[in-house]
Amino acid sequence: MKKKDFLQELRSLNIEELKRRRGEMKFQMLNLRMKLKEGLAKNPLMLRTMRRNIAIINTVLREKGCKID
Protein backbone atom coordinates (compact mmCIF):
# COMPACT_ATOMS: atom_id res chain seq x y z
CA MET A 1 0.00 0.00 0.00
CA LYS A 2 1.35 3.40 -0.90
CA LYS A 3 2.06 5.86 1.87
CA LYS A 4 -0.52 8.42 0.67
CA ASP A 5 -3.25 5.78 0.48
CA PHE A 6 -2.30 4.43 3.91
CA LEU A 7 -2.34 7.92 5.41
CA GLN A 8 -5.68 8.75 3.81
CA GLU A 9 -7.18 5.52 5.12
CA LEU A 10 -5.92 6.24 8.64
CA ARG A 11 -7.31 9.76 8.63
CA SER A 12 -10.76 8.40 7.80
CA LEU A 13 -10.77 6.16 10.90
CA ASN A 14 -11.98 7.27 14.31
CA ILE A 15 -9.77 7.39 17.41
CA GLU A 16 -10.84 4.00 18.82
CA GLU A 17 -10.12 2.24 15.53
CA LEU A 18 -6.71 3.91 15.28
CA LYS A 19 -5.81 2.82 18.81
CA ARG A 20 -6.96 -0.73 18.05
CA ARG A 21 -4.90 -0.84 14.86
CA ARG A 22 -1.85 0.53 16.69
CA GLY A 23 -2.20 -2.19 19.33
CA GLU A 24 -2.45 -4.88 16.66
CA MET A 25 0.67 -3.57 14.93
CA LYS A 26 2.61 -3.47 18.20
CA PHE A 27 1.63 -7.10 18.84
CA GLN A 28 2.68 -8.11 15.31
CA MET A 29 5.97 -6.27 15.79
CA LEU A 30 6.59 -8.17 19.03
CA ASN A 31 5.98 -11.48 17.26
CA LEU A 32 8.29 -10.46 14.41
CA ARG A 33 11.03 -9.55 16.89
CA MET A 34 10.77 -12.99 18.46
CA LYS A 35 10.97 -14.64 15.04
CA LEU A 36 14.02 -12.53 14.18
CA LYS A 37 15.76 -13.67 17.37
CA GLU A 38 14.99 -17.29 16.49
CA GLY A 39 16.10 -16.80 12.89
CA LEU A 40 12.69 -17.70 11.45
CA ALA A 41 11.72 -14.34 9.93
CA LYS A 42 11.89 -14.16 6.16
CA ASN A 43 11.91 -10.36 5.84
CA PRO A 44 13.71 -8.51 8.64
CA LEU A 45 13.02 -5.14 6.97
CA MET A 46 9.35 -5.61 7.83
CA LEU A 47 10.22 -4.53 11.39
CA ARG A 48 11.24 -1.09 10.12
CA THR A 49 8.03 -0.79 8.09
CA MET A 50 5.89 -1.68 11.11
CA ARG A 51 7.73 0.80 13.31
CA ARG A 52 7.16 3.55 10.75
CA ASN A 53 3.48 2.66 10.38
CA ILE A 54 3.03 2.88 14.15
CA ALA A 55 4.67 6.32 14.07
CA ILE A 56 2.27 7.40 11.32
CA ILE A 57 -0.70 6.20 13.38
CA ASN A 58 0.62 8.14 16.38
CA THR A 59 0.90 11.24 14.20
CA VAL A 60 -2.69 10.89 13.00
CA LEU A 61 -3.88 10.39 16.58
CA ARG A 62 -2.06 13.55 17.62
CA GLU A 63 -3.61 15.44 14.69
CA LYS A 64 -7.03 14.40 15.94
CA GLY A 65 -6.19 15.76 19.38
CA CYS A 66 -5.83 12.44 21.15
CA LYS A 67 -3.34 11.90 23.94
CA ILE A 68 -0.71 9.30 22.99
CA ASP A 69 -0.29 6.48 25.54
Describe this structure in words.
The chain is an all-alpha fold and 69 residues long. The protein has a single domain, classed as Orthogonal Bundle (Helix Hairpins). It contains three helices and no strands.
CATH architecture assignment name: Orthogonal Bundle
**Ends: how far apart?**
26 Å
The helical percent reads: over 70%
CATH fold description: Helix Hairpins
Largest sheet descriptor: none
The percent range for strand residues is: under 5%
What is the topological layout?
Elements: H1 3-12, H2 15-38, H3 46-63
Helix pairs in contact: 2-3
Task: Please supply descriptive tags for the structure shown above.
69 residues; mainly alpha; Helix Hairpins; 75% helix; elongated
Question: What's the short version?
Answer:
The chain has 69 residues and is mostly helical. 75% of the residues lie in helices and 0% in strands.
